[in-house]
Amino acid sequence: MLLKPSRWPIEIMRLRRVHQSYPYRQELEWCHFCRERHTPPEAAPVFRLPLDLGLRIVSFLPFSDRCALNASCRHLEKFVTNPVAARVRHTLREFGLDPGPFLESMQYHGAVIGGIAALRIFVEDVPMPRVLEVYTRQGHPDLGAPNQEEYDDDDPSADRGNGYRLVETAIFTYGKCQLLGYQHYGANVEKILRMRNSTLDREILFVQSRVPPIELIIEAPTTLLMNFITSNDAVCLYPDLTERRKGLLTLPIPDDRSSTLDVPVLDTLAGFRLYMFGNATQAVGRHRCPLHPSCPAVPRAYPDLLMYTVRFTDAGGYGSRLAESTWTLKVPSPCGSTERIEQRIGGPINWP
């Protein structure tokens, strides 16, 4: 190819740029953290920022981008995991619990934390709840050493650990509904142990179930409550809706098309400026079923790639004891329906 003399300098510079040599991977510095060879992390502009500023910038990213950032490089994990780990540990300390031993005991019992405490890990402006809901299949995590010298398991008023005392055992449906703020349909809750710490003015509900704890989480009345904390991970099952402060109502439609069930937890969520919809199209938006990750027609499973999972610690040596679960959301008005579901929060539910 003939080049015009006037363009020789430009073409020569272009050829030099193309043939510029880069260091071989074997010449790069070995990173003991990643166990790979790569350029120094300081070469990236994000690592030259103060950590607080970097965390603040990442907090504005959507969950999908945070997940990609977390998976792209182990040096970037701290921008995603550090805030989650701090909120989880802060929540446990607010209830007078030592995070390390309690999380390890949760792993041993295969327990998860649900309810408002799990929601505030992903929606930061949700206030700290007064009640901590812990879902377990059998037994319950240890609360720590009792504050009194003598411990009597037969005495309900005895200190069960860190000042918590058993004040109620709910085995009937009405009592379970009163404690949880909603009813678990299918009667999968065996009993609820209500622990109270009068000094801290906090309560812990140990919800013992007949099914794996994840199956109780997906029976919540809205997708906003389908979040949980394991011993190692914080999991949001419907991140796209939760990120937009929206939730799908999953209350089943009774046979007579009417219901008078009281659902106080929906009042609580509405007070946090969270919005709940009975119509799937109104919540998710126009989409092609079942391709949208938040579409209720999509069969879901735990674990899968459609959820947002942050691994905040590798503590514990018992391994994962959470059983896999599959489900499909049951909503009052499915995708494509033009029916508008009117929901009066905290009162009777008027089905179409």
Automatic annotation (TrEMBL):
Region (Disordered): 139-159
Organism: Ephemerocybe angulata
Entry-linked InterPro entries: F-box-like_dom_sf
Name this protein carries in UniProt: F-box domain-containing protein
